[in-house]
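Morning F.,

Quick status update on the modeling queue. The single chain you submitted on Monday has been processed. Sequence for confirmation:
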Amino acid sequence: MKALRTIKSLATLAIVFFTVACSNQELNNEITGEGEAEITIKEESFSSDKAVTRSLKPTIKEVDLGDGLVAEVSIEPTKEQNKPITRAALANGHYTIYAFDASGNKKATLLGTVNGTSFVRDAGTPKMKLGAGTYTFVCVNDVVSFQNGKFEVSRNTTNPLIGVTTQTITNSSISVSFIMKHQSARIKTKITSYTNEGKNIKTHISSTDVQPEIDRYNVDGNTLSGTATSALSATSNVFTVAENAVTASPYVQTIERESDYRYFLPQTDGSKLTLSFESGSKIYGKDLSSKTLNLSALGILDKNGSYTVNVKLKTFPYYLYHDGTVGTIGDKGTREPIGIVLTEKTTTEKGLAIALKDASSQKSTIGDGYYYYFLKDEGGFNNMNGYDITWTTNYYNKSNIEISTGTIPSEYNTYAPGEIQLHFPTYYAAAHYNAGVTITGSNVGKWFLGSSGQWVLMCEKLGGLNRASLPNSFTNNYGGDFVPSSTAWDGNKARTYFTQAGGDLSLSTGTTSYTSIIYGMSGSYSGYPIFIRLEANSTAYFYDFSVLNTYCLARAFVHF
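Structure tokens below.
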């Protein structure tokens, strides 16, 4: 009579001890049962960062989605967290173990469930009884089926696993050990947004080209016998990211959210995949449902590969609101915008914004400070001291004042230009700008007349001015009939940022400096007042040598 060995469900062994082996980066979730037989189930980790990276194209692609939205798309290998060296149970689930003889004939089947730290044989499932000999044991989870003599793995099934081992059964005790291997690649999305998390952001991956749909393996569990293909439908997988309310802040907050994984068969061609936003997805108050992104950087998906599709959703500009917070105009809510952010606030540096509207209509620049050069020379295009020039007495040229007036008026020892309307009307107008709403944000400072560097920053940020193309110095307007050197920018684009928030920006069409619409700037050049002229396609920077520009606009800036 042939000797028989019984591989029992671990729950029915005469003596059962459960120990959990320590995991490392290559093997984790290990359970060991000991008694008259031993069954070990181990699940391999997804590919290491290094292995997956070799198959990726290290590119970051920016895609214009329209509506003022830009998506920065990149693919990276999923970074597995190093598992602590502790005892941890295999993830709960149901498993089936098949035994095949050397000729590939199925001889027995054992079904059971892993629950916490124990494997429980299914009620009504017989014990596995095998005669002496060599067998191939194949362990699968429930998303892997056995049909017509083949193991089938389908796409869009969660984490299909197959473990295979060959053992020879004799009269001595046996040990059957499985390393459960991932039969698919997995993808998750990581959505990054700024100042707000958006609403109902869902995506799916689709392809009109045929992609692997079902992989069929021989009874050895390893040999691929064939692959069925079909197009990848838009409804077959959906990636959803969690939503958490974001409290508005003076800082531009970065919000990162990740979806769960979706599973695709190896050899899926990533260059033919498209990531699309589902209907109802919104960000910054704008609809994403018609937006698509090509995932060509994925390349060919590897079995056991783990990928993250990073999508950073960007828009411009951010606005400063009356409560001192920042955000997009689409996320306005009950807040009222008061300025456009030019420099973001950090933990060490204040932010900078320009007011949405002029501080006054064409304002007379005439004053003693205009005629007699009462301010020190702060020439050049890098002057960022608009606040100090407007609100401190540090920039008075007291020697010129004394020469011109015979004495230094007492107010110059106490009051800043922004406080002396008679002598510095443009500074005064900017310093006393009324935003049209009560400002409640304690972090919002006092308004001031912008300096040359702050105006150039505005032209760079909002109109695409190239700082390298600026002239070497301010131009003399030579009595007002000379058109100063110009630097290209997109004035109409810049103006749109103001008008969409209820503001405006004056663009000039005049041919001479004194018939143009010009803005006054804080500071001076060689002692003379300085101005900026904004046109649709160019900007100009000049000083008034002949004291003929008796009117200009005042536009306020503010730190927050």
